[in-house]
Design goal:
single chain, Aspartate Aminotransferase, domain 2, 14 helices, 14 strands, 43% helix, binds pyridoxal-5'-phosphate, pyridoxal phosphate, EC 2.3.1.47
Length: 387
């Protein structure tokens, strides 16, 4: 058996477990209407919750940014690849979020995988919700700290772990809105535990930023909490419609992260044109109440219209509306049946979700119309009986 033979076996195993992933090439910009292999599809897949990714105003801002700042940054931020426009963006993000300072990262994956190792290392301890995003999990593993993963939202279990820990440096990490479930972490309770046991509380607001809270300021603003312990991660490729991420918090915290986060330091700075576009996106988010109200209306409409028995619509008040199917093959069959009807909804299988909880991950966007959502709900209702 050569290395290639081993790999071929692994691929065959994936195939047999219905775990092969497949990409589709879209011929149109990000929007509910997609064209795949020449066929028009109505998509419920993106994290473009406010419909900004394809917004012409944002595309204009990006083009203008490229005219003004060129294509690339030329170096890492700490060498010479940091620009006025990125500094302005960081200030804008910090004031929008209500934190002292923010640090702009190229991606959310890099922010999460860089922040945790910068704050806790060997001898430290990280406490993490078992359903946290993979980038938080990877950050935790990279840190070489002790890892304690508590059952989803189980604060009693978390408290027992915190109580038992003798580590000096401690960090609790959680998604705000869980990306495959759509439910929201009890942030005030988590902060209370962090206070009691003197831990950092790192909140990954990838799916709350732009969507939840006053003016879309996110899940932390919605919860009405503030503390120097809070490490806020926002991503800029979802509701913000562009790409990138930021860490926001107390001044010394952010200064330390800039000094120590390896995923900030050892990578070329993102193109400054993106920051120019993101300043526009921040304005659109701030003035986006109409989009958010429409989105909330669509969520209520979808949940009201759906009548499922065999499959389970999971409890969620966010634009992430998963339908739990259970079996991998059945989830795939359902996604395929929807596809045949012109509806594009991804089936999510392990390892993205726990074994036995394969699901459809429907995500709604302010760019959808009422009739888009009604069409999806009625098709699902019909398929439950015919599939
Ligand atoms: C998407 C996502 C990330 C990663 O952000 P990117 O900017 O896409 O790298 C991190 N955390 C959560 C919860 C996410 O959903």
């Amino acid at each position: 058996m050569t290395q290639l033979d081993l790999l071929r076996d692994d691929l065959r195993d994936l195939e047999q477990a219905h775990l092969m992933r497949q990409r589709r090439n879209n011929a149109l910009p990000c929007a509910p209407l997609a064209v795949v292999d020449g066929r028009e599809m109505l998509a419920f897949c993106s994290n473009d919750y406010l419909g900004l990714a394809g917004d012409p105003a944002l595309a204009d801002a990006l083009a203008e940014g490229a005219q003004r700042w060129g294509a690339g940054s030329g170096a890492s931020h700490l060498v010479s690849g940091h620009y006025d426009v990125q500094h302005t963006l960081e200030q804008g993000l910090a004031s929008f979020i209500g934190c002292e300072r923010a640090l702009y990262f190229s991606t959310g994956y890099m922010a999460n995988s860089g922040v945790i190792p910068a704050l806790v290392g060997r001898g430290g301890a990280v406490f993490a919700d078992r359903l946290n995003h993979a980038s938080l999990v990877d950050g935790m593993l990279l840190s070489r700290a002790e890892t304690h993963r508590y059952p989803h939202l189980d604060l009693a279990a978390l408290e027992r772990m915190l109580q038992a820990s003798t580590a000096r440096r401690k960090l609790i990490a959680t998604d705000s809105v869980f990306s495959m479930d759509g439910d929201v972490a009890p942030l005030p309770d988590l902060l209370r535990l962090a206070d009691t046991y003197d831990a950092w509380l790192m909140v990954d607001d990838a799916h709350g930023f732009g969507v939840l809270g006053p003016n879309g300021r996110g899940a932390v603003a919605e919860a009405g909490i503030a503390s120097w312990r809070l490490i806020l991660i926002g991503t800029l490729g979802k509701a913000a419609g562009v790409s990138g991420a930021f860490v926001a918090g107390q001044t010394e915290l952010v200064e330390w992260l800039m000094q120590k986060a390896r995923t900030y330091i050892f990578t070329t700075g993102a193109p400054p044109a993106l920051a120019h576009a993101l300043l526009c996106s921040l304005e659109l988010i701030l003035n986006g109440d109409e989009r958010r109200t429409h989105l909330e209306h669509l969520i209520a409409l979808f949940r009201g219209r759906l009548q499922l028995k065999r499959w389970q619509l999971m409890p969620s008040r966010t634009p992430i509306q998963p339908i739990r199917v259970g079996d991998n093959a059945e989830a795939l069959a359902l996604a395929r049946a929807l596809w045949d009807e012109g509806l594009w909804v991804p089936a999510i299988r392990p390892p993205t979700v726990p074994v036995g909880s394969a699901r459809l991950r429907i995500s709604l966007s302010a760019a959808h119309t009422e009739s888009d959502v009604e069409r999806l709900a009625s098709t699902l209702n019909r398929l439950e009986h015919s599939l």
